[in-house]
Amino acid sequence: MSNVDKENSILTTINFPEDIRKLDITQLNTLAGEIRKKIIETVSKNGGHLASSLGTVELTLAIHFVFDTPRDKLIWDVGHQSYAHKIITGRKDMFHTLRKKGGISGFPRREESPYDAFNAGHSSTSISAATGITEARCLTGGDFKTIAVIGDGSIAAGMAFEALNWAGDRNKDMIIILNDNEMCISPNVGAMSSYLNRVMTGHTVTKFRTEAKQFLKSIPSIGEQMLKFTKQVEESLKALVIPGALFEELGFTYVGPLEGHRMDNLIKNLRNVKKLKGPVLVHVITKKGMGYKFAEDDPAKFHGIAPFKVETGEPIDSNAVPLSYTRMFGRTIVKLAHDDPRIVAVTAAMSEGTGLDEFARKYPGRFYDVGMAEQHGVTFAAGLAAGGLIPVVAIYSTFLQRAYDQIIHDVCLQNLPVVLTLDRGGFVGSDGPTHHGLFDYSYLRSIPNITVMAPKDENELQHMLKTAVECGRPASIRYPRGRGIGVAIDELPVSLEIGKGEIVVNGENAEMAIVAVGSTVYPAIAAAERLKEQGINVRVINARFIKPLDEKLLCDTAKSLKRIITVEENVLMGGFGSAMLELLVEKGIGDAIVKRLGIKDEFVEHASQGELRKMHGIDEEGIMEAAHRMMDKGEYS
Ligand SMILES: Cc1ncc(C[n+]2csc(CCOP(=O)(O)OP(=O)(O)O)c2C)c(N)n1
Questions:
Q1: Looking at the domain covering 55-80+104-291, what would its CATH class be?
Q2: Taking the alpha carbons of 216, 220, 224, 226 in that order, is the dihedral positive or negative?
Q3: DSSP state of 252
């Protein structure tokens, strides 16, 4: 920003919401433009959720203008649209650190600011959280408003429906703002979305009707009679034409639809809403990506984006090789589906993110986007499997946590051939603790009937996918975010023997073994090569299967080498290393020394994947250090 710009800038004078409450509408609109510019500039460098945050700038300013935050509690759903909120709540000068190691989070964090009333990252929690805060207010005699802001994609998930059902019945003062941009990441799906669409269209009809009434009134006598008749018809159609009738029936006062980029309109309406009693639902129409042409034209691409060039909207790192795990998965499922018509695919609102977009184009009749509804998606897949199909359910590791009971109760208990593919397993990087996929080895391996796998590279991923669709029972494959290793890709996927690991470095006269799984296999190989140069011979095993374990290979190794390091990008508790320890104890191999490398019993903050792997000692260096400690000091004996 030049000095002249700085002098004229309103944003430079804004630090907290109290500053914006002094502005007039024109100044607020100018401020909205400046905030958009800052968001675009920062996200173009750091990556992040651009389109959703650009869509809520006016709404954010209007809420903070009208309500007395942080005394009034503002709860963002998912929280990916909260960048403007961060900028005007004391974090403007930190905003350049967005999603960087040690910097501010890309999601609301209570630890970060008193203006963040509730943490988020996963969707559809805001209404439940708001009802809880509201009940607490009533019990403790508090005097403040609760406002939840939720998107039209997120409101369609089970949790949000459960909360609406509850809140409407409790009848306490609370406000839900439905931010409707007709988009999830891709265009929204489901009957709720169609309903909201009809509400919007209905709004246009209502406007037209008012104008028509005025016209009829102006025609003497005939006009009056026609108006009476119109009124009767209208009564019978009320449920159809009153916008938001569904919410009214659930016990909410419905306000809207409001134009979400008209500051004056938003402020006027929110002021009225503030005075209303009981639960209120304010329906606001916004445009995803508003104010940045490339994001408006392709909001899905700019939903969550890596660093890009502001002038062209193109990614900065356009280097297409090596192939990402996501792409490899997408390609392979298309290949396998060509040969087996029973293969179908399920996504929970993330067809691009999971790599299923190509499948969706090729086999639209065999592709299901269930919306942001992981629980439904998994049980739906169990139903498909019970009906004779082989569903592949592609859900990020972190979001599959939502469907845990469904995996146990509907898939595994019935031993149905559902394939779960968990992208973003391990550290995801800048999205941080809400999004790291660090629990799945632990949460899956404890369930009977399921086979749990993790490939060492993108080539092995295709073989595991074939193994999974052919095994005839529940199976899961988890793989990391980002690019593969860059290995040669076999022409055809082949089935692997279930429960068989592989020795990837034999380590002649090995003195110890590193047993790695998934993303940690190549760092283990690299560590072994360097250890060899230093005179320490190490055998490296790619476990491939977290369950069932290759008992023979692992027990023989433990018996003969006696020193074992396990490495995994998962929490240690209940993970792969734990499985190894359990095995050795059960088989009475008590004299082997085992050191487990993985994530300790703590949540992990945001930073790049590389930084996090280093910090948690599961990169090449960390593995080498552990090996040295074991050899030199006999540590952990
Ligand atoms: C449980 C869960 N599933 C999936 C996601 C990934 N995700 C983040 S935002 C988003 C779309 C949200 O759509 P909407 O609520 O309409 O908000 P918008 O981005 O359109 O403003 C999705 C699928 C998530 N955060 N949580």
A1: alpha beta
A2: negative
A3: P
Instruction: Work out the burial of residue 107: count CB atoms within 10 Å of its CB; fewer than 13 is exposed, 13-18 middle, 19 or more buried.
Output: buried
Q: According to the CATH classification, is domain 502-633 in 3.40.50.920? A: yes
DSSP 545: E
Q: Report the chain's terminal Cα–Cα distance, integer Å.
A: 60
Question: Residue 357 has which token pair?
Answer: 């977009």
Q: What is the dihedral of CA 130, 134, 135, 136, to 10 degrees?
A: 100
Q: Return the CATH architecture of domain 325-478.
A: 3-Layer(aba) Sandwich (3.40)
Could you give the angle at which helices 158-170 and 126-140 cross, rounded to 10 degrees? Answer: 30
Q: What is the mean pLDDT of residues 517-535?
A: 97
Residues 6+ apart with CB under 8 A from 381: 346, 391, 393, 411, 418
For the chain, where do the domains classified as CATH 3.40.50.920 start and end? 502-633
pLDDT bucket at 633, cuts 50 / 70 / 90? low
- Report pLDDT digits (tens) over 105-149: 999 999 999 999 999 999 999 999 999 999 999 999 999 999 999
* Residue ranges, CATH 3.40.50.970, the chain: 55-80+104-291, 325-478
Which residue out of 73, 100, 137, 402 is catalytically annotated?
A: 402
How far apart (Å, rounded) are the C-alpha atoms in residues 286 and 299? 12
The active-site residue, picked from 36, 137, 288, 595, is 288
What the block records as the tokens of 73 is 């509690």
Ligand 1 atom nearest to 121, measured from its CA: 25
Question: Mapping DSSP to helix (H, G, I), strand (E, B) and coil, where does residue 218 land?
Answer: coil
Confidence class for position 508, pLDDT limits 50, 70, 90: confident
CA of 360 to the centre of ligand 1 (A): 19
Q: Which atom, in ligand 1's list, is nearest to the CA of 122?
A: 26
